[in-house]
Amino acid sequence: MNLPLIMGVVNVTPDSFSDGGRWLEADAAVDHGLSLRDAGAALVDVGGESTRPGAARPTLEAELARVVPVVRGLAAAGLTVSVDTMRAAVAEAALAAGATLVNDVSGGLADPAMAEVVAAAGVEMIAMHWRGHSADMQSRAHYDDVVVDVCRELAARVDALTAAGIPPERILLDPGLGFAKTPEHNWALLRRLEEIAALGHRVVVGTSRKRFLGVVGRLPGHERAVQDRDVATAVTSAYAASAPVWAVRVHDVVATRDAFDVVAAMGGGFA
Ligand code: PMM
Question: Is 180's C-beta closer than 6 angstroms to any atom of ligand 1?
């Protein structure tokens, strides 16, 4: 059976909602990435912009200064590195520093130059479902059928990205859990990942430490704290393993690795 790859998260930001501030020093971030690799991450995702709901954007200079040294250090150590950015200039600098995959949570919408940079570099790109920047994205969480609507909007991104010169097999899709989504939207997308996969692209899913895993089963005011969401993350990762998912993006690689060991021993996912 094919279990999803584990993509370990290295956020180099002072304000990410889950691990912000902990890896701000480049050396500490590189060490963290190496420890994620040792724990079983097949690749690491380096990001310098927090997408926490309500977050303000860093300047281009700040994002470059955060991301590039960490990408360089991890790529030099032999890791497969993706860069989590919505800015073409950051993607270009990170690719020059050794990244081989661009993870754009806006699917190329935030920066019209992104598709060109990815096409020219001949690398792969994760296009996530996105409806607007973090400052006001939750006001856009309105869908008729969230899965149908997300699939349609992702297919439109594929059309635009291929028109800009990225071959379709280099485009990976992500439903963007938590981005202009309510908890109910996230659960529906997780339950119906096959419909995302049916678009014909490799699928990446990120549930890790997101708010819907804080509130599930809890009364208002009693939500799980961000650092207490890794068990719930591992369970959703294991659930995602029953769908044709290429990679799960997680902060705590150990817990998801354990979950995948169990899934493998059981001979499959929950299906
Ligand atoms: N989520 C976050 C950031 N980047 N990238 C992809 N492809 N998919 C996601 O779900 C995703 C992402 C937000 O989480 P973080 O701030 O904890 O990294």
Answer: no
| CB 103 less than 6 A from any atom of ligand 1 | yes
Q: Can you give the CATH number for the domain in which 55 is found?
A: 3.20.20.20
Q: Are 88 and 114 in contact (CB under 8 A)?
A: yes
Residue 237 domain-assigned (yes or no)? yes
249 is catalytic: yes
> 271 lies in a domain?
no
Residue 229 lies in a domain: yes
- The domain in which residue 178 lies consists of 5-265
Cβ(177) to ligand 1 under 6 A? yes
82 lines ligand 1 (CB under 6 A): no
CA of 70 to the centre of ligand 1 (A): 18
Of 74, 73, 56, the residue nearest 13 (C-alpha): 56
Is residue 210 part of the annotated active site? The answer reads yes
Q: How many domains does the chain have?
A: 1
Residue by residue, pLDDT tens for the chain (271 residues) are 689 999 999 999 876 555 656 666 899 999 999 999 999 999 999 999 988 777 788 999 999 999 999 999 999 999 999 999 999 999 999 999 999 999 999 999 999 999 999 999 999 999 999 998 877 878 889 999 999 999 999 999 999 999 999 999 999 999 999 999 999 999 999 999 999 999 999 999 999 999 999 999 999 999 999 999 999 999 999 999 999 999 999 999 999 999 999 999 998 755 5
Distance 47 CA to ligand 1 centre (A): 9
Residue nearest to atom 10 of ligand 1 (CA): 206
Ligand 1 centroid vs 121 CA: distance in angstroms? 23
For residue 108, being part of any structural domain is answered with yes
